[in-house]
Amino acid sequence: MRRRRERVVAVKEPLPAEAEEFLSWLEVERGRSPRTLSSYRRDLQAYCAAVGPGMASASPAEVARYVARLRTTHSAASVARALSTLRGFHRFVVEEGAGTSDPTATLPGIGVADLLPKALSEDELDRLLGAVVGTGPLVLRDRALLEFLYATGARVSEGIDLNLGDVADAMDGEGIAFVRVHGKGNKERMVPLGGAARAALGAWLSGDGRPLVTPARWRRRSDADALFLNSKGGRLTRVGAFGIVRRYAERVGLEAKVSPHVLRHSCATHMLAHGADIRVVQELLGHASIATTQRYTKVSSEHLRRAYEAAHPRAGTKAKARA
Fold it and tell me: Is the pTM of this model over 0.90?
């Protein structure tokens, strides 16, 4: 008789008291989500492993060495996130009176240019979406996911968290519809869904799509409401969504450039290039600050040059002729 495998439950390793208090403050006072808190905890655990349990009183030199070491093994985005965690932690320690100075105060930040992914060109985007060919429910799901991420500029976490009720109204009628997205800090926003994405979602929700991967019995009650399912009928995970995007990127030689976040950045960049107001893009992406949107929607120098030549009365060839 085959022995039943025991389920292993990961135990949350405690951090020094100051770090645990910081995480509690983030949860209770700042309303951070469980996913965000997990990221903070991982950053603090790695920091503690490097500088020791006395991390709250680390010196500027210790923090600088730790960040420099991270730069050799992690992406700029990962280092920036870790540095943000350390800055928040040490500011909290000082404000609570458990420390006298902030060792991160003089550390330089991570350059914006290092953090921004390069948007795909519109031709590259067409190649990526064109790679989703074939039949079967999972192909319909994959096309719906890619079309949705590009059409809405949603974060991958926002996509996989969608429930059927969030898109129900968008599936009725014709033209541009709206989908309810739950963003950071559990802030809800309505995002428009264009024709291509709407058609792809409709195909996934038809009898040839999602119903064919619906299990006879749901493993988790929340899976029954999930918009995007995996092959076993559970809610699609973040890792699963990354895998889907990467699989089609590899088919067209774009694996080095494409991730779900690149689709978000491409959506914003393409909209700005076609004349969208930056405030509209801010609302679409769910940014609290317009400064954040400006980082995501950097316009290429070539596009800026063409726009300037077309719009400024003394920029083009006619101005030279008048001179």
Answer: no
